[in-house]
Design a protein that fits this description.
It contains 7 helices and 10 strands. It is α+β, with helices and mostly antiparallel strands. β1 and β2 form a beta hairpin. The mean pLDDT is 88.
Length: 203
């Protein structure tokens, strides 16, 4: 995972946060920025919007998570406000989306990345079991209009099969760094050591 506020030099745009790459140049600039940062080649992509998360979770009957403490979520952008209580809880689509966007736990974007990775792991645990294969068409029908990808149906099926075969070999890495104000803008500056570590993993 790459923290969204990571400071990079955007092609033709100067210094920006890496999440600005998509706004400035769509998937092409976003891919190029990540490839340049990590010295790697991205073969395929899938872009999810907020509705994809919401619809997908609702189609699957919710997302169960264990909360270490009660959290209050206030999202002025989506005009949502509710409380998620400590303990095991099954979230609906909008609750899951807000939980994944939540940044007020003292860890900011790094805490959000952790929750998003745990969400992905849960999806893998659910989907990469043969008994849950019947759920895949339902989930796909719910989200297919809310995603963008350069893969066709055959390519996505191939990824699923590969994922099943490699289900015990997945690794998660988050680029590490520190916060820094530059020209009155808060950036996340990556440690060279962390970048090099991930580059080695990707070789």
């Amino acid at each position: 995972s790459i923290p969204r506020d990571t400071m990079i030099k955007l092609r033709g745009k100067g210094t920006h946060k890496i999440n600005a790459s998509y706004a400035f140049g769509g998937i092409d600039l976003c891919k190029a920025s990540v490839e340049n940062l990590l010295d790697t080649k991205i073969d395929n992509y899938v872009v999810f919007n907020f509705k994809a998360i919401q619809k997908g979770v609702d189609a699957l009957g919710g997302f169960t998570v264990t909360l270490p403490k009660t959290i209050k979520i206030r999202d002025p952008e989506l005009k949502k406000c509710f409380t998620l209580k400590k303990g095991d809880i099954t979230l609906n689509g909008i609750q899951t989306l807000e939980y994944l966007r939540y940044r007020s736990d003292g860890r900011g974007d790094i805490g959000r990345i952790y929750r998003q990775q745990e969400f992905i792991k849960d999806l893998q645990d659910s989907f990469l079991k043969l008994e849950n294969v019947p759920l895949i068409p339902r989930a796909y029908l719910a989200v297919h209009n809310e995603i963008k990808t350069d893969m066709n149906a055959s390519g996505m099926a191939s990824c699923f099969i590969s994922g099943y075969r490699l289900r015990n070999s997945f690794e998660y890495h988050t680029l590490e760094g520190y916060s820094k104000m530059v020209d009155k803008v808060s950036y996340y500056v990556l440690y060279k050591k962390s970048i090099n570590k991930v580059k080695e993993v990707l070789k």
